[in-house]
Amino acid sequence: MEDNLDRRAVLKGVAASAFSLGVVGDAVAAPSEALQFDDPKPFSFELLKAMARERAHAPYVAPARPSPEIVSKINYEEWGKIRFKMDDALFAEGPGRFPISFFHLGLYFQKSVEMHVVEDGRSRQILYDPSYFEMPADSVARQLPKGAGFAGMRIQEPRDGALDWKHNDWVAFLGASYFRAIGALRQYGLSARGLALDVAVAGRPEEFPDFTRFFIDARPQGEALVIYALLEGPSIVGAYKFALTRTQAVLMDIETNLFTRAEIARFGIAPLTSMYWYSETKKETAIDWRPEVHDSDGLSLWTGEGERLWRPLNDPPRIIVSAFADDNPRGFGLCQRDRVFDHYLDGVYYDRRPTLWVEPLPVGDVQGWGRGAIQLCEIPTDDEIHDNIVAMWVPEQPVLAGAEMTLAYRLHWVAEEPFPSGLALVVATRLGRGGQPGLPRPKGVRKFVVEFLGAPLAALPYGVKPEMAISASRGSLDGYRLIEAVPDGVPGHWRAEFDLKVDGTDPVEMRCFLKAGDQVVSETWMFQYHPF
Fold first, then answer.
1. Is residue 123 part of a domain?
2. What is the C-alpha R_g of the chain?
Protein backbone atom coordinates (compact mmCIF):
# COMPACT_ATOMS: atom_id res chain seq x y z
CA MET A 1 0.00 0.00 0.00
CA GLU A 2 1.15 3.52 -0.77
CA ASP A 3 2.45 5.56 2.15
CA ASN A 4 2.53 2.53 4.44
CA LEU A 5 3.74 3.39 7.96
CA ASP A 6 5.24 1.33 10.73
CA ARG A 7 2.69 0.97 13.55
CA ARG A 8 5.18 1.80 16.29
CA ALA A 9 6.26 4.98 14.48
CA VAL A 10 2.67 6.16 14.18
CA LEU A 11 1.83 5.34 17.77
CA LYS A 12 5.03 6.91 19.04
CA GLY A 13 3.90 10.18 17.51
CA VAL A 14 0.41 9.82 18.92
CA ALA A 15 1.78 8.96 22.36
CA ALA A 16 4.08 11.96 22.19
CA SER A 17 1.05 14.17 21.68
CA ALA A 18 -0.37 12.97 25.00
CA PHE A 19 2.57 14.50 26.82
CA SER A 20 2.66 17.60 24.59
CA LEU A 21 -0.64 19.09 25.72
CA GLY A 22 0.21 22.07 27.83
CA VAL A 23 3.97 21.96 27.16
CA VAL A 24 5.54 25.36 27.79
CA GLY A 25 8.79 26.25 26.02
CA ASP A 26 11.11 29.25 26.13
CA ALA A 27 9.72 31.14 23.17
CA VAL A 28 10.17 34.49 21.51
CA ALA A 29 6.79 36.01 20.64
CA ALA A 30 6.31 37.01 17.03
CA PRO A 31 4.09 39.95 16.12
CA SER A 32 0.44 38.94 16.41
CA GLU A 33 -1.63 38.77 13.23
CA ALA A 34 -5.24 37.75 12.71
CA LEU A 35 -6.03 34.47 10.99
CA GLN A 36 -5.96 34.60 7.19
CA PHE A 37 -8.51 32.81 5.00
CA ASP A 38 -8.87 31.55 1.46
CA ASP A 39 -11.88 32.39 -0.73
CA PRO A 40 -15.24 30.95 0.45
CA LYS A 41 -16.73 27.82 -1.13
CA PRO A 42 -20.13 26.11 -0.72
CA PHE A 43 -20.27 23.56 2.10
CA SER A 44 -22.73 21.13 3.69
CA PHE A 45 -22.48 17.65 5.14
CA GLU A 46 -24.24 16.34 2.01
CA LEU A 47 -21.57 17.97 -0.16
CA LEU A 48 -18.86 16.41 2.01
CA LYS A 49 -20.44 12.97 1.65
CA ALA A 50 -20.63 13.46 -2.12
CA MET A 51 -16.95 14.46 -2.15
CA ALA A 52 -16.04 11.31 -0.20
CA ARG A 53 -17.98 9.07 -2.57
CA GLU A 54 -16.36 10.69 -5.59
CA ARG A 55 -12.85 10.43 -4.18
CA ALA A 56 -13.40 6.74 -3.33
CA HIS A 57 -13.74 6.07 -7.08
CA ALA A 58 -10.48 7.86 -7.87
CA PRO A 59 -6.87 6.82 -7.18
CA TYR A 60 -5.62 7.54 -3.68
CA VAL A 61 -3.59 10.71 -3.24
CA ALA A 62 -1.61 10.87 0.00
CA PRO A 63 -1.79 14.00 2.18
CA ALA A 64 0.74 16.70 1.44
CA ARG A 65 4.06 16.65 3.32
CA PRO A 66 5.29 20.24 2.97
CA SER A 67 9.01 20.97 3.15
CA PRO A 68 10.00 17.53 4.54
CA GLU A 69 13.64 18.59 4.84
CA ILE A 70 12.53 21.25 7.34
CA VAL A 71 9.70 19.44 9.12
CA SER A 72 11.83 16.35 9.79
CA LYS A 73 14.18 18.52 11.85
CA ILE A 74 11.41 19.64 14.21
CA ASN A 75 11.93 16.82 16.72
CA TYR A 76 9.81 16.24 19.80
CA GLU A 77 11.80 18.68 21.94
CA GLU A 78 11.74 21.44 19.33
CA TRP A 79 8.07 20.80 18.55
CA GLY A 80 7.20 21.24 22.22
CA LYS A 81 8.66 24.76 22.15
CA ILE A 82 6.26 25.87 19.39
CA ARG A 83 3.00 27.17 20.80
CA PHE A 84 -0.03 28.62 19.11
CA LYS A 85 -0.76 32.22 20.14
CA MET A 86 -4.14 32.15 21.82
CA ASP A 87 -4.92 35.72 20.82
CA ASP A 88 -5.13 34.38 17.25
CA ALA A 89 -7.38 31.42 18.14
CA LEU A 90 -10.38 30.78 15.93
CA PHE A 91 -13.48 32.12 17.75
CA ALA A 92 -11.33 33.96 20.28
CA GLU A 93 -13.94 36.72 19.94
CA GLY A 94 -16.81 34.48 18.72
CA PRO A 95 -19.15 33.61 17.17
CA GLY A 96 -18.29 30.05 18.18
CA ARG A 97 -18.41 29.41 21.93
CA PHE A 98 -15.26 27.26 22.01
CA PRO A 99 -12.05 28.84 20.70
CA ILE A 100 -9.89 26.61 18.48
CA SER A 101 -6.09 26.53 18.48
CA PHE A 102 -3.83 24.61 16.13
CA PHE A 103 -0.85 22.23 16.33
CA HIS A 104 2.29 22.87 14.31
CA LEU A 105 3.85 20.37 11.92
CA GLY A 106 6.79 18.36 13.24
CA LEU A 107 8.83 15.17 12.96
CA TYR A 108 6.01 12.94 14.20
CA PHE A 109 3.26 14.94 12.46
CA GLN A 110 4.52 15.66 8.96
CA LYS A 111 1.24 15.52 7.03
CA SER A 112 -0.56 18.77 6.40
CA VAL A 113 -4.20 18.92 7.54
CA GLU A 114 -6.54 21.51 6.05
CA MET A 115 -8.60 23.58 8.50
CA HIS A 116 -11.80 25.29 7.36
CA VAL A 117 -14.38 27.40 9.15
CA VAL A 118 -18.05 27.05 8.10
CA GLU A 119 -20.58 29.86 8.26
CA ASP A 120 -23.85 30.42 6.37
CA GLY A 121 -23.38 27.39 4.10
CA ARG A 122 -19.88 28.37 2.99
CA SER A 123 -16.42 27.32 4.15
CA ARG A 124 -13.13 29.21 4.14
CA GLN A 125 -9.77 27.52 4.56
CA ILE A 126 -7.50 28.93 7.26
CA LEU A 127 -4.11 29.66 5.72
CA TYR A 128 -1.04 28.74 7.77
CA ASP A 129 1.33 31.53 8.69
CA PRO A 130 4.34 31.21 11.04
CA SER A 131 3.23 34.36 12.83
CA TYR A 132 0.39 32.40 14.49
CA PHE A 133 2.97 30.60 16.64
CA GLU A 134 5.41 31.52 19.37
CA MET A 135 8.73 29.76 18.77
CA PRO A 136 12.40 30.24 19.62
CA ALA A 137 14.25 32.77 17.49
CA ASP A 138 16.47 30.01 16.06
CA SER A 139 13.67 27.46 15.46
CA VAL A 140 13.97 25.67 12.13
CA ALA A 141 10.18 25.98 11.88
CA ARG A 142 10.64 29.62 10.94
CA GLN A 143 11.88 28.41 7.55
CA LEU A 144 8.50 26.91 6.64
CA PRO A 145 6.71 28.77 3.85
CA LYS A 146 3.39 30.50 4.29
CA GLY A 147 0.51 28.08 3.63
CA ALA A 148 2.40 24.96 4.80
CA GLY A 149 -0.60 23.84 6.86
CA PHE A 150 -1.31 22.52 10.34
CA ALA A 151 -0.83 19.15 12.04
CA GLY A 152 -4.07 19.17 14.04
CA MET A 153 -6.24 21.22 16.34
CA ARG A 154 -7.23 21.65 19.94
CA ILE A 155 -10.59 22.78 21.33
CA GLN A 156 -10.34 25.18 24.25
CA GLU A 157 -12.78 25.53 27.13
CA PRO A 158 -15.71 27.93 26.53
CA ARG A 159 -14.99 31.66 26.57
CA ASP A 160 -17.90 32.18 28.98
CA GLY A 161 -16.85 29.36 31.35
CA ALA A 162 -15.25 29.36 34.77
CA LEU A 163 -11.86 28.20 33.46
CA ASP A 164 -9.29 30.29 31.63
CA TRP A 165 -9.86 29.06 28.08
CA LYS A 166 -6.37 30.08 26.95
CA HIS A 167 -4.80 27.52 29.29
CA ASN A 168 -7.42 24.77 29.30
CA ASP A 169 -8.57 22.53 26.45
CA TRP A 170 -10.87 19.50 26.31
CA VAL A 171 -10.47 17.84 22.87
CA ALA A 172 -7.47 17.37 20.57
CA PHE A 173 -7.28 15.97 17.03
CA LEU A 174 -3.69 15.09 16.14
CA GLY A 175 -2.04 12.37 14.05
CA ALA A 176 -3.67 10.13 11.40
CA SER A 177 -7.33 9.82 12.51
CA TYR A 178 -6.58 9.92 16.25
CA PHE A 179 -8.38 12.17 18.70
CA ARG A 180 -8.71 12.35 22.46
CA ALA A 181 -10.70 14.17 25.12
CA ILE A 182 -10.50 14.76 28.82
CA GLY A 183 -12.91 12.98 31.14
CA ALA A 184 -14.71 14.12 34.26
CA LEU A 185 -11.38 14.18 36.13
CA ARG A 186 -9.89 16.66 33.64
CA GLN A 187 -7.10 14.44 32.35
CA TYR A 188 -6.15 13.19 28.89
CA GLY A 189 -5.43 9.49 28.50
CA LEU A 190 -6.41 6.97 25.85
CA SER A 191 -7.37 7.86 22.27
CA ALA A 192 -10.13 7.13 19.80
CA ARG A 193 -9.72 7.18 16.04
CA GLY A 194 -11.82 7.24 12.91
CA LEU A 195 -11.15 3.65 11.84
CA ALA A 196 -8.70 0.81 12.51
CA LEU A 197 -7.88 -1.16 9.36
CA ASP A 198 -6.14 -4.54 9.31
CA VAL A 199 -4.82 -4.39 12.87
CA ALA A 200 -2.58 -7.42 13.53
CA VAL A 201 -3.48 -9.22 10.28
CA ALA A 202 -0.77 -11.67 9.23
CA GLY A 203 0.82 -10.70 5.94
CA ARG A 204 -0.96 -7.33 5.72
CA PRO A 205 0.37 -4.04 7.06
CA GLU A 206 -1.95 -2.00 9.21
CA GLU A 207 -3.39 0.99 7.36
CA PHE A 208 -3.66 4.37 9.07
CA PRO A 209 -6.13 6.58 7.19
CA ASP A 210 -5.88 10.30 7.88
CA PHE A 211 -8.30 13.08 8.66
CA THR A 212 -7.14 15.36 5.84
CA ARG A 213 -9.69 18.19 6.12
CA PHE A 214 -11.66 19.59 9.02
CA PHE A 215 -14.65 21.91 8.73
CA ILE A 216 -15.47 23.75 11.96
CA ASP A 217 -19.01 25.12 12.23
CA ALA A 218 -19.04 28.67 13.56
CA ARG A 219 -22.71 28.61 14.56
CA PRO A 220 -23.40 28.01 18.25
CA GLN A 221 -25.66 24.91 18.23
CA GLY A 222 -26.95 24.68 21.76
CA GLU A 223 -24.24 23.19 23.95
CA ALA A 224 -22.58 21.33 21.07
CA LEU A 225 -19.69 22.21 18.79
CA VAL A 226 -20.09 20.60 15.36
CA ILE A 227 -17.04 19.60 13.34
CA TYR A 228 -16.97 17.77 10.00
CA ALA A 229 -13.99 15.79 8.71
CA LEU A 230 -12.86 14.02 5.57
CA LEU A 231 -11.01 10.74 6.18
CA GLU A 232 -8.80 9.35 3.43
CA GLY A 233 -6.65 6.25 3.08
CA PRO A 234 -5.48 3.86 0.37
CA SER A 235 -8.49 1.57 1.03
CA ILE A 236 -11.23 3.96 2.18
CA VAL A 237 -12.72 7.45 2.16
CA GLY A 238 -15.18 8.70 4.78
CA ALA A 239 -17.23 11.76 5.72
CA TYR A 240 -17.57 12.36 9.48
CA LYS A 241 -19.77 14.60 11.58
CA PHE A 242 -18.82 15.20 15.22
CA ALA A 243 -21.22 16.86 17.67
CA LEU A 244 -19.06 17.55 20.73
CA THR A 245 -20.67 18.39 24.05
CA ARG A 246 -18.77 19.65 27.09
CA THR A 247 -20.60 18.54 30.23
CA GLN A 248 -18.87 17.46 33.42
CA ALA A 249 -17.21 14.97 31.08
CA VAL A 250 -17.23 14.94 27.24
CA LEU A 251 -19.79 13.42 24.87
CA MET A 252 -19.25 12.94 21.13
CA ASP A 253 -22.07 12.00 18.76
CA ILE A 254 -20.43 10.68 15.59
CA GLU A 255 -22.07 10.01 12.24
CA THR A 256 -20.00 8.64 9.39
CA ASN A 257 -20.53 7.62 5.77
CA LEU A 258 -17.80 5.27 4.52
CA PHE A 259 -16.82 4.27 0.98
CA THR A 260 -14.22 1.54 0.39
CA ARG A 261 -11.69 1.38 -2.41
CA ALA A 262 -10.38 -2.09 -1.54
CA GLU A 263 -11.28 -5.14 0.51
CA ILE A 264 -10.34 -4.83 4.19
CA ALA A 265 -9.57 -7.98 6.18
CA ARG A 266 -10.18 -6.57 9.69
CA PHE A 267 -12.52 -3.57 9.60
CA GLY A 268 -12.37 -1.90 13.02
CA ILE A 269 -15.30 0.39 13.84
CA ALA A 270 -15.19 2.91 16.72
CA PRO A 271 -11.65 1.84 17.65
CA LEU A 272 -10.21 2.75 21.03
CA THR A 273 -6.44 2.81 21.56
CA SER A 274 -4.80 2.72 24.98
CA MET A 275 -1.69 1.77 26.92
CA TYR A 276 -1.35 -1.09 29.40
CA TRP A 277 2.09 -2.04 30.70
CA TYR A 278 1.38 -3.69 34.06
CA SER A 279 -0.97 -3.54 37.05
CA GLU A 280 -1.52 -5.40 40.30
CA THR A 281 -2.20 -8.53 38.23
CA LYS A 282 1.37 -9.25 37.23
CA LYS A 283 4.59 -7.25 37.59
CA GLU A 284 8.12 -8.39 36.94
CA THR A 285 10.52 -7.72 39.79
CA ALA A 286 12.09 -4.23 39.61
CA ILE A 287 10.70 -3.56 36.13
CA ASP A 288 9.86 -0.04 37.31
CA TRP A 289 9.61 1.90 40.56
CA ARG A 290 5.86 2.51 40.27
CA PRO A 291 3.31 -0.09 41.42
CA GLU A 292 1.15 0.22 38.26
CA VAL A 293 1.43 1.90 34.85
CA HIS A 294 -1.58 1.94 32.53
CA ASP A 295 -4.10 4.28 30.87
CA SER A 296 -6.75 1.55 31.03
CA ASP A 297 -6.96 -1.62 33.09
CA GLY A 298 -9.79 -3.52 31.40
CA LEU A 299 -12.30 -3.97 28.62
CA SER A 300 -15.94 -3.75 29.68
CA LEU A 301 -18.67 -5.27 27.47
CA TRP A 302 -22.45 -5.01 27.52
CA THR A 303 -23.75 -7.65 25.16
CA GLY A 304 -26.87 -7.58 23.02
CA GLU A 305 -28.47 -10.06 25.42
CA GLY A 306 -27.65 -7.86 28.41
CA GLU A 307 -24.71 -9.75 29.92
CA ARG A 308 -22.03 -7.63 31.59
CA LEU A 309 -18.45 -8.79 31.12
CA TRP A 310 -15.07 -7.57 32.36
CA ARG A 311 -11.81 -8.57 30.70
CA PRO A 312 -8.63 -7.39 32.50
CA LEU A 313 -5.93 -6.30 30.07
CA ASN A 314 -2.63 -8.10 29.51
CA ASP A 315 0.84 -7.24 28.32
CA PRO A 316 1.07 -10.54 26.43
CA PRO A 317 4.19 -12.46 25.35
CA ARG A 318 3.16 -11.99 21.68
CA ILE A 319 0.45 -10.17 19.74
CA ILE A 320 -2.91 -11.59 20.80
CA VAL A 321 -6.32 -10.83 19.26
CA SER A 322 -9.37 -11.92 21.25
CA ALA A 323 -12.87 -11.83 19.71
CA PHE A 324 -16.11 -11.59 21.69
CA ALA A 325 -18.90 -12.50 19.27
CA ASP A 326 -22.16 -10.62 19.66
CA ASP A 327 -25.33 -9.48 17.94
CA ASN A 328 -26.16 -5.78 18.27
CA PRO A 329 -23.93 -5.00 21.28
CA ARG A 330 -25.24 -2.36 23.63
CA GLY A 331 -21.79 -0.96 24.24
CA PHE A 332 -18.16 -1.52 25.14
CA GLY A 333 -15.31 0.49 26.55
CA LEU A 334 -11.72 0.61 27.69
CA CYS A 335 -11.91 1.60 31.34
CA GLN A 336 -9.65 2.91 34.06
CA ARG A 337 -11.29 1.54 37.20
CA ASP A 338 -8.42 1.92 39.65
CA ARG A 339 -8.67 5.52 40.93
CA VAL A 340 -6.24 5.29 43.87
CA PHE A 341 -3.21 7.56 43.46
CA ASP A 342 -1.07 5.39 45.73
CA HIS A 343 -1.46 2.54 43.25
CA TYR A 344 0.51 4.59 40.67
CA LEU A 345 2.57 7.18 42.63
CA ASP A 346 3.09 9.14 39.41
CA GLY A 347 2.66 12.84 38.76
CA VAL A 348 1.20 12.17 35.29
CA TYR A 349 -2.00 11.13 37.08
CA TYR A 350 -2.78 7.69 35.73
CA ASP A 351 -5.46 7.55 38.43
CA ARG A 352 -7.37 10.31 36.58
CA ARG A 353 -7.24 8.88 33.05
CA PRO A 354 -10.69 8.74 31.43
CA THR A 355 -12.82 5.71 30.74
CA LEU A 356 -14.01 5.71 27.11
CA TRP A 357 -17.32 4.03 26.34
CA VAL A 358 -18.82 3.34 22.88
CA GLU A 359 -22.62 3.43 22.57
CA PRO A 360 -24.02 2.35 19.17
CA LEU A 361 -26.79 4.64 17.90
CA PRO A 362 -29.58 3.90 15.40
CA VAL A 363 -29.35 5.09 11.80
CA GLY A 364 -32.82 5.52 10.33
CA ASP A 365 -34.70 2.24 10.78
CA VAL A 366 -31.49 0.31 11.52
CA GLN A 367 -31.26 -0.06 15.28
CA GLY A 368 -27.88 -1.69 15.77
CA TRP A 369 -24.62 -2.88 14.29
CA GLY A 370 -25.81 -6.44 13.56
CA ARG A 371 -23.63 -9.49 14.00
CA GLY A 372 -19.90 -9.32 14.56
CA ALA A 373 -17.41 -9.22 17.40
CA ILE A 374 -15.80 -6.81 19.78
CA GLN A 375 -12.14 -7.54 19.16
CA LEU A 376 -9.34 -6.81 21.59
CA CYS A 377 -5.80 -6.58 20.25
CA GLU A 378 -3.01 -6.70 22.85
CA ILE A 379 0.56 -5.98 21.75
CA PRO A 380 3.65 -6.65 23.89
CA THR A 381 5.32 -3.56 25.30
CA ASP A 382 8.29 -2.81 27.53
CA ASP A 383 7.48 0.81 28.30
CA GLU A 384 4.63 3.28 28.75
CA ILE A 385 5.38 5.26 25.58
CA HIS A 386 3.62 2.75 23.31
CA ASP A 387 -0.13 2.53 22.86
CA ASN A 388 -0.38 -1.25 22.73
CA ILE A 389 -4.12 -1.92 23.25
CA VAL A 390 -6.87 -1.67 20.60
CA ALA A 391 -10.57 -2.44 21.14
CA MET A 392 -13.04 -2.19 18.25
CA TRP A 393 -16.19 -3.57 16.67
CA VAL A 394 -15.60 -5.81 13.64
CA PRO A 395 -18.61 -6.81 11.46
CA GLU A 396 -19.21 -10.50 10.82
CA GLN A 397 -19.35 -10.08 7.04
CA PRO A 398 -16.20 -9.05 5.15
CA VAL A 399 -16.06 -5.46 3.93
CA LEU A 400 -15.42 -5.59 0.19
CA ALA A 401 -14.21 -3.04 -2.31
CA GLY A 402 -16.97 -0.67 -3.40
CA ALA A 403 -18.93 -1.01 -0.16
CA GLU A 404 -20.86 1.91 1.33
CA MET A 405 -22.03 2.09 4.93
CA THR A 406 -23.47 4.60 7.36
CA LEU A 407 -22.77 4.33 11.10
CA ALA A 408 -23.60 6.33 14.19
CA TYR A 409 -22.35 6.04 17.74
CA ARG A 410 -21.72 8.08 20.88
CA LEU A 411 -18.43 8.27 22.75
CA HIS A 412 -18.56 8.88 26.50
CA TRP A 413 -15.29 10.26 27.96
CA VAL A 414 -16.09 9.75 31.64
CA ALA A 415 -14.71 8.73 35.02
CA GLU A 416 -17.01 5.73 35.46
CA GLU A 417 -18.95 3.61 32.97
CA PRO A 418 -22.06 5.54 31.90
CA PHE A 419 -24.59 2.69 32.20
CA PRO A 420 -24.18 0.99 35.59
CA SER A 421 -25.31 -2.63 35.66
CA GLY A 422 -26.30 -2.72 39.33
CA LEU A 423 -24.03 -5.75 39.70
CA ALA A 424 -20.84 -5.98 41.73
CA LEU A 425 -17.81 -5.00 39.66
CA VAL A 426 -14.40 -6.62 39.35
CA VAL A 427 -11.92 -4.25 40.99
CA ALA A 428 -8.70 -6.30 41.01
CA THR A 429 -7.16 -9.43 39.53
CA ARG A 430 -4.12 -10.90 41.29
CA LEU A 431 -1.89 -13.87 40.47
CA GLY A 432 0.39 -15.83 42.79
CA ARG A 433 1.77 -19.29 43.57
CA GLY A 434 -0.83 -22.01 43.93
CA GLY A 435 -1.47 -24.02 47.05
CA GLN A 436 -1.86 -22.91 50.66
CA PRO A 437 0.59 -20.99 52.85
CA GLY A 438 2.52 -23.26 55.21
CA LEU A 439 2.18 -26.29 52.94
CA PRO A 440 4.41 -27.46 50.06
CA ARG A 441 3.57 -25.45 46.93
CA PRO A 442 2.53 -27.71 44.03
CA LYS A 443 4.36 -27.25 40.73
CA GLY A 444 2.48 -26.02 37.67
CA VAL A 445 -0.29 -24.47 39.78
CA ARG A 446 -1.23 -20.77 39.67
CA LYS A 447 -3.44 -19.00 42.19
CA PHE A 448 -6.00 -16.39 41.09
CA VAL A 449 -7.56 -13.82 43.41
CA VAL A 450 -10.44 -11.87 41.87
CA GLU A 451 -11.89 -9.00 43.92
CA PHE A 452 -15.53 -7.91 43.52
CA LEU A 453 -17.16 -4.80 44.97
CA GLY A 454 -20.75 -3.61 44.85
CA ALA A 455 -24.14 -3.12 46.45
CA PRO A 456 -25.50 -6.66 45.80
CA LEU A 457 -22.66 -8.08 47.90
CA ALA A 458 -23.12 -5.46 50.61
CA ALA A 459 -26.80 -6.45 50.81
CA LEU A 460 -26.09 -10.11 51.64
CA PRO A 461 -27.41 -11.11 55.08
CA TYR A 462 -24.84 -11.42 57.83
CA GLY A 463 -23.09 -14.79 57.69
CA VAL A 464 -24.13 -15.51 54.08
CA LYS A 465 -21.38 -15.97 51.55
CA PRO A 466 -21.76 -15.65 47.79
CA GLU A 467 -20.83 -18.62 45.62
CA MET A 468 -18.34 -18.52 42.79
CA ALA A 469 -19.01 -20.03 39.36
CA ILE A 470 -15.72 -20.61 37.53
CA SER A 471 -14.58 -22.34 34.35
CA ALA A 472 -11.42 -22.65 32.24
CA SER A 473 -10.84 -23.63 28.62
CA ARG A 474 -8.20 -26.14 29.69
CA GLY A 475 -6.46 -27.34 32.83
CA SER A 476 -7.97 -28.28 36.19
CA LEU A 477 -9.80 -26.07 38.73
CA ASP A 478 -10.36 -28.91 41.22
CA GLY A 479 -7.88 -27.73 43.82
CA TYR A 480 -7.93 -24.90 46.36
CA ARG A 481 -10.96 -22.56 46.49
CA LEU A 482 -11.93 -19.86 48.96
CA ILE A 483 -14.36 -16.97 49.01
CA GLU A 484 -14.18 -14.37 51.74
CA ALA A 485 -14.92 -10.76 52.56
CA VAL A 486 -11.87 -8.53 52.16
CA PRO A 487 -10.96 -7.40 55.70
CA ASP A 488 -10.75 -3.69 54.84
CA GLY A 489 -14.11 -2.67 56.30
CA VAL A 490 -15.55 -1.72 52.91
CA PRO A 491 -19.11 -3.11 52.57
CA GLY A 492 -19.60 -5.45 49.63
CA HIS A 493 -15.88 -6.09 49.02
CA TRP A 494 -15.28 -9.81 48.47
CA ARG A 495 -12.58 -11.91 46.88
CA ALA A 496 -12.73 -15.26 45.15
CA GLU A 497 -9.56 -17.37 45.33
CA PHE A 498 -8.92 -20.50 43.27
CA ASP A 499 -6.07 -22.52 41.80
CA LEU A 500 -5.52 -23.55 38.20
CA LYS A 501 -3.30 -26.51 37.32
CA VAL A 502 -2.27 -26.42 33.67
CA ASP A 503 0.50 -27.79 31.46
CA GLY A 504 2.12 -26.08 28.49
CA THR A 505 2.23 -22.41 27.56
CA ASP A 506 -0.89 -22.02 25.39
CA PRO A 507 -3.32 -19.35 26.69
CA VAL A 508 -6.16 -20.36 28.99
CA GLU A 509 -9.53 -18.59 28.78
CA MET A 510 -11.13 -18.28 32.23
CA ARG A 511 -14.49 -17.07 33.57
CA CYS A 512 -15.81 -16.35 37.04
CA PHE A 513 -18.87 -14.68 38.51
CA LEU A 514 -20.58 -14.59 41.89
CA LYS A 515 -24.12 -15.64 42.70
CA ALA A 516 -26.37 -15.79 45.73
CA GLY A 517 -28.61 -18.80 45.31
CA ASP A 518 -30.03 -18.54 41.78
CA GLN A 519 -29.34 -14.82 41.52
CA VAL A 520 -26.26 -13.49 39.72
CA VAL A 521 -24.77 -10.70 41.85
CA SER A 522 -21.64 -9.76 39.87
CA GLU A 523 -20.49 -9.10 36.36
CA THR A 524 -18.53 -11.91 34.71
CA TRP A 525 -14.75 -11.82 35.01
CA MET A 526 -13.02 -13.12 31.88
CA PHE A 527 -9.28 -13.53 31.85
CA GLN A 528 -6.73 -14.78 29.36
CA TYR A 529 -3.97 -16.45 31.33
CA HIS A 530 -0.59 -17.00 29.72
CA PRO A 531 1.22 -19.80 31.64
CA PHE A 532 4.90 -19.15 32.26
1. yes
2. 25
